[in-house]
Every structure is written in structure tokens, then in C-alpha cells.
Amino acid sequence: MSAPTSAPMMSACDPILLAETHEGVRTLTLNRPQARNALSVALMGALQQALDDAGADDAVRVVILAARGPVFCAGHDLREMRANPGAVAYEALFTQCARLMMTLVHLPKPVIACVHGMATAAGCQLVASCDLAVAAEEARFATPGVTIGLFCSTPMVALSRAIGRKKVMEMLLTGEPLDASTALAHGLINKVVAQADLVRETTALARSIADRSPLTVALGKAAFQRQIDMPLEQAYAYASAIMTRNMMARDAEEGIDAFLEKRAPTWCGR
Question: Which chain regions cross the lipid bilayer (predicted)?
């Protein structure tokens, strides 16, 4: 994964989404820098397909979501939206976006956002929907729809599940951006690093997860998402059943044996 740069020269035949895989980590890079990586229908479709492919590929252990150019993602493509007005088109667009965000949540592989520059509206929603996020010191996060008469209702869904209610309401009602340190303090991101270290730090985090049992990671991610909205008693009952299922897996046996024998485990994914 190359470091984000200023907007490169592009031709009409350049792909709007780049994908590369190295040592179990698949990096998906938004590649509409001259449009501030706005989520057009085509870009959302390409990202949806790429995530579906990554979820089905046993060689992929972790996904990194990155972007080229000075902006991470400016949200929906407003020019495209205004060129295709009407309730039917808007409903289809937001349904497509909701499916994409839910795919990030339910993908059996962890997804890490690698954020530089601005992440606004649906771009901020992307970050909030990922499992983890590493951001450059210069990164900013905002839901500025209210300033143009369009409340960020769909980004609100992801943000309200990632950070506290009052901070989310402040973002939604004012449209003012959070700097990286504030986003870190409120739990929207996991780590703030120097711009020069962003790719290295994000890749190191991804590879540390890629070294774990893929079965255990997939089981754990799904369990986390399912239990989070359960009542406490139900959550413990569910988690206990998952722990029992996990203990019966061959990878758990291997991991425990390797720990007791002071050796590195060999995962089989079952």
C-alpha cells in the first residue's frame, strides 16, 4: 500500500478502486482523487464487489480501506445525486449505501480504515463502520450535511454506534469537524500517527491480526457485533455458547497446546 499523495493525474480508463493483497492483507484503495473520493454509485458498487470477494477468499485475513489523493472520502457524490433527482433514485442510492456499510460490519474479516485528510458525511460513516481505524495527525472527521440542508441521517447510524450520543449530536447539528486527537478520545479511531507513518502503522496492525486464527477472528467479530445490543444476561448466555463453540475448534486446541508447549501455533482454520 502506497502512501496517500496529492491528487495524481488520472485518465478515464483508470480504475476507481484499486486492490492488492500481500501476506494475507488485502488493501482496497478509493481512487477518485479528483472527485475527493466521493461515493458514486459506481464506486460503491466496486467496493461492494471487492468486499464480497475478500470475504469469500481464504487467502485474505484482513482488509485495509485506504484512499488516494488529499481527501479520504467526501461522502456521497452530490453532483451525481443532483443529476438524478427523485425519490426512487435517492432511495436506491441510500439502500445501496446501507448494504455497503452493513457488509463492512458483517464481513468475516476485520476491516481497518487507513485515514488521511478529510472523512466527511458518508466518508465518516465508512470510518465508523470499519472495525478499526488508524488516522494521520492531519485527518479530520465531519458530518456537515446540516450546513447544506441535508441532515446526515445515514452516517448517524454508524456514528451513534461508535461514539457517545452527545458528541454525535454535536457533529450532526453543527457540521463542525473533529480533529484526529478528538476523534481518538471519543473512540471513533484507534490510533493517531504521523502522516509519514500512516501506511506502516496500519499495515503492522493488519499483519498482527492476520497472524491469528482466521476461524477465531471471524467467530469473534460476528459475536461482538451480535452481542453488543443484547441485554446483559442474554449477552452473557450468548457469549458463553460462543466460547464453548470456540473451545471445540481445532485452532483453539492448537493455540492452547502451543502456548503450553512454548511454541508458535499452526492454524488450520477449523
Answer: none
Q: Which residues contact 253 (CB under 8 A, 6 or more apart)?
A: none
- Report the distance separating Cα 157 and Cα 154, nearest Å: 5
Architecture per CATH, domain 214-260, reads as Orthogonal Bundle (1.10)
Backbone phi, then psi, for 64, in 5-degree steps?
Answer: -110, 135
Which CATH fold topology does 17-210 show? 2-enoyl-CoA Hydratase; Chain A, domain 1 (3.90.226)
Other CB atoms closer than 10 Å to residue 195's CB: what's the count?
A: 15
Output the nine-digit C-alpha cell for 190.
Answer: 484507534
Distance of CA 185 to the CA centre of its chain: 18
Q: What pTM was computed for the model? A: 0.94
- Give per-residue pLDDT as tens, 35-82: 999 999 999 999 999 999 999 999 999 999 999 999 999 999 999 999
pLDDT score for 13: 76
Distance of CA 95 to the CA centre of its chain: 18
Q: Output the nine-digit C-alpha cell for 75.
A: 461522502
Task: Pull the grid cell for residue 143.
Answer: 458530518
Q: Report the 10 Å Cβ neighbour count for 269.
A: 13
Q: Which residues contact 158 (CB under 8 A, 6 or more apart)?
A: 101, 125, 128, 129
Domains of the chain: which residue ranges? 17-210, 214-260
- Count the neighbouring beta carbons within 10 Å of the beta carbon of residue 83: 9
